[in-house]
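#struct-pred

JT: dropping the chains for the assembly here, can someone run the whole complex?
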Amino acid sequence: MNLKCINCSSLFDTDSILYNCSKCNDLLEVEYDLDKISNNLGSNWRDSPLSVWKYQDFLPIPDGVERVTLQEGGTRLHNSKKLSSFLGIDELHIKNEGDNPTASFKDRGMTVAVTKAKQLGAKIITCASTGNTSASLAAYGARGGLKRIVLIPSGKVAYGKLSQAMICGAHVLQIDGNFDKCLEVVMELSSKYEDIYLVNSINPFRIEGQKTIVFEIFEQLGHVPDWIIVPVGNAGNVSAIWKGLNEFLQLGIIDKLPRLVGVQAEGSAPISAAFSEGKMEVNYIQKPETLATAIRIGAPASWKKALRAIYDSNGLATTVSDKEILEGQMNLAKLEGLFIEPASAAPIAALKKLLRNGTISSDEEVVCIATGHGLKDPDIITKFVEKPTEVSSNIDEIQKVIKK
Ligand SMILES: *Cc1c(COP(=O)(O)O)cnc(C)c1O
Ligand SMILES: [Zn+2]
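RK: done, full complex below.
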Protein backbone atom coordinates (compact mmCIF):
# COMPACT_ATOMS: atom_id res chain seq x y z
CA MET A 1 0.00 0.00 0.00
CA ASN A 2 1.32 3.41 -1.00
CA LEU A 3 0.39 7.04 -1.39
CA LYS A 4 0.67 7.82 -5.08
CA CYS A 5 0.77 11.22 -6.75
CA ILE A 6 -2.01 11.54 -9.36
CA ASN A 7 0.26 13.64 -11.56
CA CYS A 8 3.87 12.37 -11.44
CA SER A 9 3.13 8.92 -9.92
CA SER A 10 5.73 9.34 -7.17
CA LEU A 11 5.14 6.90 -4.33
CA PHE A 12 5.19 7.69 -0.63
CA ASP A 13 4.76 5.71 2.54
CA THR A 14 1.22 5.71 3.96
CA ASP A 15 2.70 6.43 7.38
CA SER A 16 4.13 9.76 6.31
CA ILE A 17 2.34 12.99 7.18
CA LEU A 18 1.84 14.33 3.70
CA TYR A 19 -1.09 16.06 2.03
CA ASN A 20 0.41 16.79 -1.38
CA CYS A 21 3.13 15.27 -3.54
CA SER A 22 6.47 16.53 -2.23
CA LYS A 23 7.86 16.55 -5.78
CA CYS A 24 5.14 18.28 -7.84
CA ASN A 25 2.62 19.34 -5.18
CA ASP A 26 -0.32 17.57 -6.81
CA LEU A 27 -2.93 15.43 -5.02
CA LEU A 28 -2.19 12.03 -3.52
CA GLU A 29 -4.25 8.89 -3.46
CA VAL A 30 -3.98 5.56 -1.70
CA GLU A 31 -2.98 2.71 -3.96
CA TYR A 32 -3.51 -0.89 -2.85
CA ASP A 33 -2.13 -4.21 -3.80
CA LEU A 34 -5.45 -5.48 -5.10
CA ASP A 35 -4.28 -9.11 -5.15
CA LYS A 36 -3.91 -8.94 -1.39
CA ILE A 37 -7.43 -7.61 -1.02
CA SER A 38 -8.95 -10.33 -3.15
CA ASN A 39 -7.10 -13.00 -1.17
CA ASN A 40 -8.43 -11.49 2.02
CA LEU A 41 -12.11 -11.28 1.14
CA GLY A 42 -13.77 -14.27 2.70
CA SER A 43 -16.68 -15.84 0.85
CA ASN A 44 -19.10 -14.48 3.45
CA TRP A 45 -17.94 -10.84 3.61
CA ARG A 46 -21.12 -9.79 1.85
CA ASP A 47 -23.31 -11.23 4.59
CA SER A 48 -22.17 -8.90 7.34
CA PRO A 49 -24.17 -5.69 7.94
CA LEU A 50 -23.24 -2.56 6.01
CA SER A 51 -20.84 -0.08 7.60
CA VAL A 52 -17.69 1.77 6.66
CA TRP A 53 -15.49 -0.67 8.55
CA LYS A 54 -17.03 -3.67 6.88
CA TYR A 55 -14.75 -2.71 4.01
CA GLN A 56 -11.59 -2.51 6.07
CA ASP A 57 -9.70 -4.52 3.46
CA PHE A 58 -10.21 -1.49 1.19
CA LEU A 59 -9.10 0.99 3.84
CA PRO A 60 -5.56 2.16 4.65
CA ILE A 61 -5.84 1.03 8.26
CA PRO A 62 -4.27 -2.30 9.17
CA ASP A 63 -6.02 -4.80 11.40
CA GLY A 64 -5.31 -4.22 15.07
CA VAL A 65 -5.18 -0.42 14.92
CA GLU A 66 -7.65 1.07 17.37
CA ARG A 67 -10.52 2.63 15.43
CA VAL A 68 -12.11 5.97 16.18
CA THR A 69 -15.67 5.15 15.25
CA LEU A 70 -19.25 6.23 15.94
CA GLN A 71 -20.61 3.39 13.77
CA GLU A 72 -20.84 5.30 10.54
CA GLY A 73 -22.19 4.08 7.21
CA GLY A 74 -24.94 1.54 6.69
CA THR A 75 -27.21 4.38 5.60
CA ARG A 76 -30.60 3.69 4.05
CA LEU A 77 -31.23 3.52 0.33
CA HIS A 78 -34.81 4.55 -0.41
CA ASN A 79 -36.65 3.43 -3.49
CA SER A 80 -38.50 6.67 -4.06
CA LYS A 81 -41.59 5.69 -6.03
CA LYS A 82 -43.61 8.86 -5.65
CA LEU A 83 -40.74 11.17 -6.53
CA SER A 84 -39.89 8.89 -9.48
CA SER A 85 -43.35 9.16 -10.94
CA PHE A 86 -43.40 12.90 -10.30
CA LEU A 87 -40.12 13.28 -12.22
CA GLY A 88 -40.99 10.70 -14.87
CA ILE A 89 -38.43 7.96 -14.23
CA ASP A 90 -38.94 4.28 -13.43
CA GLU A 91 -36.21 3.63 -10.87
CA LEU A 92 -34.90 6.33 -8.54
CA HIS A 93 -33.13 5.66 -5.26
CA ILE A 94 -32.04 8.14 -2.63
CA LYS A 95 -28.95 7.23 -0.58
CA ASN A 96 -29.67 9.04 2.65
CA GLU A 97 -26.34 10.06 4.16
CA GLY A 98 -28.19 12.04 6.83
CA ASP A 99 -28.41 8.67 8.61
CA ASN A 100 -24.75 8.98 9.64
CA PRO A 101 -23.74 9.78 13.27
CA THR A 102 -23.34 13.54 12.70
CA ALA A 103 -25.88 13.47 9.87
CA SER A 104 -23.71 13.84 6.79
CA PHE A 105 -21.51 11.64 4.60
CA LYS A 106 -18.43 13.39 6.05
CA ASP A 107 -18.42 10.82 8.87
CA ARG A 108 -17.37 8.06 6.47
CA GLY A 109 -14.13 9.85 5.70
CA MET A 110 -13.64 11.26 9.18
CA THR A 111 -13.64 7.90 10.97
CA VAL A 112 -10.76 6.80 8.75
CA ALA A 113 -8.83 10.09 8.84
CA VAL A 114 -9.08 10.47 12.62
CA THR A 115 -8.13 6.83 13.14
CA LYS A 116 -5.10 7.49 10.94
CA ALA A 117 -4.32 10.72 12.79
CA LYS A 118 -4.14 8.81 16.08
CA GLN A 119 -2.08 6.04 14.52
CA LEU A 120 0.39 8.66 13.28
CA GLY A 121 0.59 10.16 16.76
CA ALA A 122 -1.15 13.46 15.99
CA LYS A 123 -2.50 15.37 18.99
CA ILE A 124 -4.42 18.12 17.20
CA ILE A 125 -6.68 17.82 14.18
CA THR A 126 -7.92 20.69 12.06
CA CYS A 127 -10.01 21.51 9.00
CA ALA A 128 -11.59 24.29 7.01
CA SER A 129 -15.29 23.77 6.67
CA THR A 130 -18.56 25.01 5.28
CA GLY A 131 -20.05 23.28 8.33
CA ASN A 132 -20.41 19.53 8.00
CA THR A 133 -16.72 18.68 8.05
CA SER A 134 -16.30 20.68 11.25
CA ALA A 135 -19.29 18.94 12.85
CA SER A 136 -17.81 15.60 11.95
CA LEU A 137 -14.27 16.50 12.99
CA ALA A 138 -15.53 17.75 16.34
CA ALA A 139 -17.41 14.53 17.05
CA TYR A 140 -14.66 12.14 15.99
CA GLY A 141 -12.00 14.27 17.64
CA ALA A 142 -13.97 14.06 20.88
CA ARG A 143 -14.36 10.32 20.48
CA GLY A 144 -10.65 9.92 19.83
CA GLY A 145 -9.52 12.32 22.55
CA LEU A 146 -7.77 14.71 20.18
CA LYS A 147 -7.66 18.49 20.31
CA ARG A 148 -9.75 19.97 17.53
CA ILE A 149 -9.59 23.27 15.71
CA VAL A 150 -11.99 24.22 12.93
CA LEU A 151 -11.93 27.24 10.64
CA ILE A 152 -15.23 28.40 9.20
CA PRO A 153 -16.19 31.37 7.04
CA SER A 154 -17.79 34.19 9.02
CA GLY A 155 -21.55 34.01 8.45
CA LYS A 156 -22.93 31.54 5.88
CA VAL A 157 -22.47 28.50 8.09
CA ALA A 158 -25.74 26.76 8.85
CA TYR A 159 -26.58 26.89 12.53
CA GLY A 160 -27.19 23.18 12.97
CA LYS A 161 -23.66 22.41 11.86
CA LEU A 162 -22.03 25.15 13.91
CA SER A 163 -23.81 24.00 17.06
CA GLN A 164 -22.56 20.44 16.52
CA ALA A 165 -18.97 21.65 16.34
CA MET A 166 -19.43 23.80 19.44
CA ILE A 167 -21.08 21.18 21.65
CA CYS A 168 -18.41 18.62 20.78
CA GLY A 169 -15.74 20.94 22.07
CA ALA A 170 -14.03 22.13 18.92
CA HIS A 171 -12.19 25.40 19.03
CA VAL A 172 -14.19 27.23 16.36
CA LEU A 173 -12.41 30.04 14.56
CA GLN A 174 -14.42 32.26 12.27
CA ILE A 175 -12.29 33.73 9.51
CA ASP A 176 -13.17 36.88 7.61
CA GLY A 177 -13.26 35.22 4.25
CA ASN A 178 -15.02 32.36 2.51
CA PHE A 179 -14.33 28.62 2.65
CA ASP A 180 -11.55 28.88 0.08
CA LYS A 181 -9.67 31.32 2.30
CA CYS A 182 -10.16 29.06 5.33
CA LEU A 183 -8.69 26.11 3.42
CA GLU A 184 -5.70 28.17 2.37
CA VAL A 185 -5.08 29.10 6.01
CA VAL A 186 -5.37 25.56 7.47
CA MET A 187 -3.11 24.18 4.76
CA GLU A 188 -0.47 26.67 5.72
CA LEU A 189 -1.04 26.00 9.41
CA SER A 190 -0.69 22.23 9.08
CA SER A 191 2.38 22.44 6.87
CA LYS A 192 4.08 24.78 9.32
CA TYR A 193 3.20 22.84 12.47
CA GLU A 194 3.64 19.09 12.11
CA ASP A 195 1.60 18.32 15.22
CA ILE A 196 -1.51 19.87 13.64
CA TYR A 197 -2.98 17.21 11.39
CA LEU A 198 -5.22 18.27 8.49
CA VAL A 199 -8.36 16.26 7.79
CA ASN A 200 -9.87 18.12 4.85
CA SER A 201 -10.61 15.95 1.84
CA ILE A 202 -7.20 16.66 0.27
CA ASN A 203 -6.14 14.25 3.01
CA PRO A 204 -6.18 11.05 0.96
CA PHE A 205 -7.43 8.96 3.91
CA ARG A 206 -10.71 10.88 3.98
CA ILE A 207 -11.41 9.80 0.40
CA GLU A 208 -10.85 6.16 1.37
CA GLY A 209 -13.65 6.20 3.93
CA GLN A 210 -15.99 8.09 1.65
CA LYS A 211 -15.70 5.61 -1.20
CA THR A 212 -17.61 3.06 0.91
CA ILE A 213 -20.78 4.91 -0.06
CA VAL A 214 -20.72 3.16 -3.46
CA PHE A 215 -19.79 -0.21 -1.99
CA GLU A 216 -23.00 0.02 0.00
CA ILE A 217 -25.09 1.19 -2.95
CA PHE A 218 -23.91 -1.80 -4.94
CA GLU A 219 -24.75 -4.19 -2.13
CA GLN A 220 -28.13 -2.62 -1.46
CA LEU A 221 -29.23 -2.71 -5.10
CA GLY A 222 -27.50 -5.96 -5.92
CA HIS A 223 -26.14 -4.32 -9.05
CA VAL A 224 -24.68 -1.07 -10.36
CA PRO A 225 -27.14 1.69 -11.35
CA ASP A 226 -26.88 3.52 -14.69
CA TRP A 227 -26.23 6.89 -13.08
CA ILE A 228 -25.04 8.24 -9.73
CA ILE A 229 -25.72 11.93 -9.13
CA VAL A 230 -23.80 13.78 -6.43
CA PRO A 231 -23.43 17.41 -5.33
CA VAL A 232 -19.94 18.83 -5.77
CA GLY A 233 -18.29 21.35 -3.47
CA ASN A 234 -14.62 20.76 -2.69
CA ALA A 235 -14.94 17.74 -5.01
CA GLY A 236 -13.68 15.04 -2.66
CA ASN A 237 -16.82 12.95 -2.65
CA VAL A 238 -17.26 12.53 -6.40
CA SER A 239 -13.57 11.55 -6.55
CA ALA A 240 -14.06 9.02 -3.76
CA ILE A 241 -17.08 7.48 -5.44
CA TRP A 242 -15.17 6.94 -8.66
CA LYS A 243 -12.19 5.44 -6.86
CA GLY A 244 -14.38 2.96 -5.01
CA LEU A 245 -16.18 1.91 -8.16
CA ASN A 246 -12.92 1.28 -9.98
CA GLU A 247 -11.52 -0.82 -7.16
CA PHE A 248 -14.63 -3.02 -7.20
CA LEU A 249 -14.37 -3.26 -10.98
CA GLN A 250 -10.71 -4.26 -10.91
CA LEU A 251 -11.48 -6.98 -8.40
CA GLY A 252 -14.31 -8.27 -10.57
CA ILE A 253 -16.89 -7.60 -7.85
CA ILE A 254 -18.80 -5.47 -10.36
CA ASP A 255 -18.65 -5.75 -14.13
CA LYS A 256 -19.75 -2.30 -15.24
CA LEU A 257 -19.45 1.30 -14.10
CA PRO A 258 -22.19 3.88 -13.73
CA ARG A 259 -22.00 7.34 -15.27
CA LEU A 260 -21.40 10.11 -12.76
CA VAL A 261 -23.11 13.48 -12.63
CA GLY A 262 -21.47 16.19 -10.54
CA VAL A 263 -23.87 18.98 -9.64
CA GLN A 264 -22.87 22.47 -8.60
CA ALA A 265 -24.92 25.54 -7.75
CA GLU A 266 -25.01 28.14 -10.51
CA GLY A 267 -23.07 30.71 -8.49
CA SER A 268 -20.34 28.24 -7.43
CA ALA A 269 -19.63 26.13 -10.47
CA PRO A 270 -15.96 26.07 -11.53
CA ILE A 271 -15.97 22.34 -12.30
CA SER A 272 -19.14 22.47 -14.31
CA ALA A 273 -17.76 25.45 -16.24
CA ALA A 274 -14.61 23.51 -17.11
CA PHE A 275 -16.66 20.51 -18.17
CA SER A 276 -18.95 22.49 -20.42
CA GLU A 277 -15.89 23.81 -22.26
CA GLY A 278 -14.36 20.34 -22.45
CA LYS A 279 -11.36 21.47 -20.40
CA MET A 280 -9.10 19.59 -17.99
CA GLU A 281 -8.34 22.75 -15.97
CA VAL A 282 -10.58 24.84 -13.75
CA ASN A 283 -10.69 28.58 -13.25
CA TYR A 284 -11.41 29.39 -9.64
CA ILE A 285 -14.35 31.60 -8.79
CA GLN A 286 -13.50 34.49 -6.49
CA LYS A 287 -16.90 35.07 -4.92
CA PRO A 288 -18.88 31.84 -4.91
CA GLU A 289 -22.54 32.28 -3.98
CA THR A 290 -25.41 29.91 -3.25
CA LEU A 291 -27.79 29.32 -0.39
CA ALA A 292 -26.65 25.68 -0.49
CA THR A 293 -23.76 26.63 1.78
CA ALA A 294 -22.20 23.13 1.81
CA ILE A 295 -21.23 23.61 -1.85
CA ARG A 296 -20.44 27.31 -1.72
CA ILE A 297 -16.87 26.75 -2.89
CA GLY A 298 -14.98 28.53 -5.67
CA ALA A 299 -11.61 26.78 -5.53
CA PRO A 300 -12.33 23.04 -5.14
CA ALA A 301 -9.17 21.32 -3.92
CA SER A 302 -9.90 17.99 -5.62
CA TRP A 303 -10.95 19.46 -8.97
CA LYS A 304 -8.49 17.35 -10.95
CA LYS A 305 -9.64 14.05 -9.47
CA ALA A 306 -13.25 15.14 -9.95
CA LEU A 307 -12.89 16.12 -13.60
CA ARG A 308 -11.09 12.86 -14.34
CA ALA A 309 -13.89 10.93 -12.65
CA ILE A 310 -16.56 12.75 -14.60
CA TYR A 311 -14.85 12.41 -17.98
CA ASP A 312 -13.74 8.81 -17.42
CA SER A 313 -17.23 7.73 -16.42
CA ASN A 314 -18.67 9.27 -19.58
CA GLY A 315 -20.66 11.41 -17.18
CA LEU A 316 -21.18 15.11 -16.87
CA ALA A 317 -21.05 18.15 -14.62
CA THR A 318 -23.96 20.52 -14.53
CA THR A 319 -25.49 23.36 -12.54
CA VAL A 320 -28.80 24.11 -10.89
CA SER A 321 -30.17 27.38 -9.54
CA ASP A 322 -30.92 28.00 -5.88
CA LYS A 323 -34.61 28.05 -6.73
CA GLU A 324 -34.37 24.62 -8.34
CA ILE A 325 -32.46 23.32 -5.32
CA LEU A 326 -35.19 24.47 -2.91
CA GLU A 327 -37.84 22.97 -5.15
CA GLY A 328 -36.00 19.63 -5.19
CA GLN A 329 -35.63 19.73 -1.42
CA MET A 330 -39.33 20.37 -0.98
CA ASN A 331 -40.43 17.77 -3.51
CA LEU A 332 -38.44 15.05 -1.78
CA ALA A 333 -39.84 16.01 1.60
CA LYS A 334 -43.46 16.30 0.47
CA LEU A 335 -43.48 13.15 -1.64
CA GLU A 336 -41.16 10.85 0.30
CA GLY A 337 -40.95 12.25 3.81
CA LEU A 338 -37.20 12.74 3.58
CA PHE A 339 -35.80 16.02 4.88
CA ILE A 340 -32.36 16.79 3.45
CA GLU A 341 -30.29 19.97 3.38
CA PRO A 342 -30.23 22.22 0.30
CA ALA A 343 -26.86 21.05 -1.12
CA SER A 344 -28.11 17.49 -0.88
CA ALA A 345 -31.11 18.35 -3.04
CA ALA A 346 -28.98 19.59 -5.94
CA PRO A 347 -28.90 16.08 -7.52
CA ILE A 348 -32.71 15.89 -7.51
CA ALA A 349 -32.91 19.30 -9.17
CA ALA A 350 -30.33 18.20 -11.73
CA LEU A 351 -32.14 14.93 -12.42
CA LYS A 352 -35.30 16.84 -13.26
CA LYS A 353 -33.40 18.88 -15.85
CA LEU A 354 -31.52 15.91 -17.30
CA LEU A 355 -34.74 13.94 -17.76
CA ARG A 356 -36.38 16.88 -19.42
CA ASN A 357 -33.55 17.46 -21.89
CA GLY A 358 -33.22 13.76 -22.65
CA THR A 359 -29.72 13.21 -21.24
CA ILE A 360 -31.13 10.61 -18.85
CA SER A 361 -34.02 8.52 -20.09
CA SER A 362 -36.95 7.32 -18.02
CA ASP A 363 -35.94 3.65 -18.20
CA GLU A 364 -32.47 4.24 -16.73
CA GLU A 365 -31.81 3.62 -13.07
CA VAL A 366 -30.56 6.54 -10.99
CA VAL A 367 -29.16 6.92 -7.48
CA CYS A 368 -29.05 10.42 -6.01
CA ILE A 369 -26.72 10.92 -3.05
CA ALA A 370 -28.47 12.91 -0.33
CA THR A 371 -25.34 14.13 1.42
CA GLY A 372 -26.70 15.67 4.63
CA HIS A 373 -29.74 15.96 6.90
CA GLY A 374 -32.26 18.78 6.58
CA LEU A 375 -32.06 19.73 10.27
CA LYS A 376 -28.54 20.98 9.61
CA ASP A 377 -30.04 24.10 8.12
CA PRO A 378 -33.53 24.77 9.49
CA ASP A 379 -33.34 28.53 8.83
CA ILE A 380 -33.71 27.95 5.10
CA ILE A 381 -37.08 26.35 5.64
CA THR A 382 -38.48 29.06 7.86
CA LYS A 383 -37.43 31.58 5.21
CA PHE A 384 -38.93 29.89 2.19
CA VAL A 385 -41.81 27.73 3.32
CA GLU A 386 -45.24 28.94 4.35
CA LYS A 387 -45.28 29.97 8.03
CA PRO A 388 -47.48 28.21 10.62
CA THR A 389 -51.03 29.60 10.68
CA GLU A 390 -51.82 31.62 13.81
CA VAL A 391 -55.12 30.65 15.32
CA SER A 392 -56.78 30.80 18.75
CA SER A 393 -57.42 27.62 20.70
CA ASN A 394 -61.14 27.89 19.94
CA ILE A 395 -62.35 24.69 18.18
CA ASP A 396 -64.80 26.47 15.89
CA GLU A 397 -62.13 28.83 14.70
CA ILE A 398 -59.69 25.96 14.12
CA GLN A 399 -62.31 24.15 12.09
CA LYS A 400 -62.87 27.24 9.95
CA VAL A 401 -59.16 27.50 9.25
CA ILE A 402 -58.80 23.77 8.40
CA LYS A 403 -61.73 23.90 5.98
CA LYS A 404 -60.03 26.65 4.00
C1 LIG B 1 -19.30 18.48 2.01
C2 LIG B 1 -20.66 18.44 1.42
C3 LIG B 1 -20.88 18.41 0.04
C4 LIG B 1 -19.77 18.52 -0.95
O1 LIG B 1 -18.90 17.43 -0.97
P1 LIG B 1 -17.42 17.59 -1.55
O2 LIG B 1 -16.75 16.34 -1.23
O3 LIG B 1 -16.83 18.79 -0.87
O4 LIG B 1 -17.60 17.84 -3.02
C5 LIG B 1 -22.17 18.30 -0.41
N1 LIG B 1 -23.22 18.24 0.45
C6 LIG B 1 -23.04 18.27 1.77
C7 LIG B 1 -24.23 18.21 2.66
C8 LIG B 1 -21.77 18.37 2.31
O5 LIG B 1 -21.61 18.42 3.62
ZN1 LIG C 1 3.83 14.45 -7.96
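JT: nice. The first strand starts at residue 2 and ends at 5. The mean pLDDT is 96.
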